[in-house]
Amino acid sequence: MGTTQLESVPEPKYWHLKTVLTEALDSEFSVGEILPNERDLAARFGVARATLRQALEQLELEGRLQRRRGVGTTVAPPRVGVAVGTDPHAWPGAPGDAWRPVDCTVALPPGAVADLLETGRDERVHTVRRSRVTHGRPVAADLLYVPDASVPDLSAIDAASGAARARAVLRELQRLELEGQDQAVELGSASAEDAKELDRLPGAPVLVVTTRYYAEDRTAAVSVATYRADTCRLTFGDAGDVEIHHDPERRAS
Amino acid sequence: MGTTQLESVPEPKYWHLKTVLTEALDSEFSVGEILPNERDLAARFGVARATLRQALEQLELEGRLQRRRGVGTTVAPPRVGVAVGTDPHAWPGAPGDAWRPVDCTVALPPGAVADLLETGRDERVHTVRRSRVTHGRPVAADLLYVPDASVPDLSAIDAASGAARARAVLRELQRLELEGQDQAVELGSASAEDAKELDRLPGAPVLVVTTRYYAEDRTAAVSVATYRADTCRLTFGDAGDVEIHHDPERRAS
């Protein structure tokens, strides 16, 4: 049964090329090295440019290659493990938080966020923008949506915008008792704004982590964080980082 | 500073098209509906086929569209929330487990898995293949790697392979006291084997979840699960499912 199906969907040409390229990357190239240009690579492996490009795209998805404007295609370093939700009992901005507050505005949240917050689609909420840097590189951008009801004592005397305002919102949020949180991870593509912050091109694949924070029996805040999918491995659990290194050939049988 | 950078990286043409297409999807099409063909769409929006294709690829990444062999491009249903690691104190195969054992072989694990298990690169391990179905659709394929040391009483009398063997390995594993687990999520591309199981084409983007299980002060088993990135949203935490629905325009300011 399996065989018949396999035969009816023949393995695409670029798939075999990908395997060959992976072996070449392992044996001939080192991290950071620039690959020959597409024309030379296509000639070396005896394939059409379109086939080569498909294989390169696959290897980029798997984190083996990086394509950068003005640099070309380079061999990627192993993905960095980035701890997500290590402490389910801490608010954003609590001591030890890996995020840096950047800005804060008051704006209409996306409809899906408004539904989670039960604020109604026409209610503006505090929107804290934060960024996360690991090993000196931008790895994630975050928007934290906080309705007025969660920060009732937030004073208008505090800075009206900017990082100071962001810190004021986070400080007020921490006065609530956090009852729990849950998270979801899905695939997305970088918006123009995220792309700029993450040093990627718009549309690049990203991992989107949505966290819902509960307090006083309701959703008190929602965070939508966008992680670079090329360089990040998101880690969950006590040990923080699962020390699994890049291995594209996870099948060995 | 931000502005200068934005101006130096102009928004690509397909990006604007994507926004326009998203609005059309929301207002004119319903879930499951087949989109007009590329030529007609390109003509309607006055863009080149290549630009259209880029926009469609983006929308596929974001889970708004599905492209299927022999069917064409259809409007995707909202992603399904799939709970990952809901109970950190249960072994794979414990009651309530969402996975179905399919097969079991003895094979060399990938190098990265061997390193996690500290088995040495030339030691073969029990390799349990499992699959997960949600709402009648295949959503994930899993390989669970179990070294001999974790199932010392596994009897050769049990079935030598197949689902019965898989169940025997899981049953033996459950005799160990589970001390904890951690998980990592990253982007990958479907191998030919995964693709067949997940009803996708090889190379399709997938979310790869690596789970390390600890017992007796060491890594007793490693699971590498591959989830469809187009239809799944992975959920973590007590509440199981973060009820956030698809909203590609998460920025509202």
Automatic annotation (TrEMBL), chains A, B:
Q: List, alphabetically, the SUPFAM superfamilies matched.
A: Chorismate lyase-like, Winged helix' DNA-binding domain
Q: Write down the SMART domains for this protein, in alphabetical order.
A: HTH_GNTR, UTRA
Xref: PROSITE patterns: HTH_GNTR (PS50949)
Ranges where the HTH gntR-type domain occurs: 11-78
Signal peptide range equals none
Short name of one Pfam family for this protein?
A: GntR
Q: Please give the name of this protein.
A: GntR family transcriptional regulator
The species this protein belongs to is Streptomyces caeni
Output the lineage of the source organism: Bacteria, Bacillati, Actinomycetota, Actinomycetes, Kitasatosporales
